[in-house]
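Input sequence (411 aa), recorded before submission:
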Amino acid sequence: MSVSRRTLLTTAAGAAGAVGASTSSAASAATADHLDLASATRTLRQAADYAVAKLRAVAPGVTAFPVGTKFEKWTYSQNGDWVGGFWPGQLWLAWLHSGEEQFKTLALASAEKLAPRQNDTSTHDLGFLFYPSWVTAWRLTGDEKWRAGAVQAASSLIKRYNPAGRFIRAWGSLTDPNNAGRAIMDTIMNLDLLAFASRQTQDPKYLEIAVAHAKTAQRNFVRPDGSTPHVFDFDPVTGAPIGPGTVQGYSPASCWSRGQAWGVYGFTTIHRRTGDPEFLATARRLADFALAQLTADHVPVWDYLAPQAPDDVKDASAGVIMACGLLDLAELTHRPHYRESALRILTAVSRTCLTTRSARAEASVARCTRNRPAEDGIEVSLPYADYYLLEGILRVLDRRKVDRAIDLSSV
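Predicted structure, token format:
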């Protein structure tokens, strides 16, 4: 690790703990090169307990799928939009952490509401919808209907594959010419549903499509410095590359932090499912770029290369998503600085981004940004932030519990 990177990480170790009077003593206890693991573990356990307590209070009254907050209260989608899997996913993790049966009951009821979406061919987000909900339900209950529904969702997803360009189309129905050649960074996180389907059916076509998309993304999205655009466009007929674009980032030349986080986690996961070392190398390049952009508070800005970065609005969801990927990277590369960085991000979010001071808040994590260019959801709460915070913390506290839910194994 370079001197500048080491300086950044060690400065962040102190600064992340120093935010807020209640944690100043923990920060001062940390030495320049040492992460106070005992203090971090206490902070993470308290954050997990808080998240579960919040779900205990809020979840019994939830009858649809939270998509984001407005003045600290959840707003909902009846069909789940693209985020529907994260609500039952949170409930499953709460059940694993607490052992309380009500969370299992609520998770099953919520996942059931996604049943019509297994035949939805209009979106690439079937992995987000069905992996943390139906795949996890099957892994934790053994009920065949959850496995079969997840495989059906994978069958719907591969219909969006463009063989000419070797990518999965992100947006628009299959008959809509608009966005027909558009691929986005987020899709890398939907590929694990395809890997699951190949394992379950012994049909290699699902994983082959996942690998083809990942290689196309690797070739076209990743810049020499390890940054990425949100979007890359192809000619939908010939598959020829056209160039980068953006929707949720600042510009085609910028680096939307949540997209970068999807890439860190997603490329690491496709490496775990294939053993391909190039995917692991790509995940490292993306992680190294993002870590070099983090400021002392260890909470990502919404776009690392926007003109006002790093002094712009934050996106805590990008941090907790990346932390999960970094924990995998540390294990796979045997490089402990990735784990230390993940712990610093998770503890920083736990100390500075939770809703603990608000009696009104229905979510656990604040300071998330959904779509800055559209002025849609600026520093609000988002269901995937709550989900990945809990996933990341449980990976640290008891990795076996998360492995039961989502399969952290490698080939």
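Checked by second reader. The CA atoms of residues 229 and 255 lie 5 Å apart.
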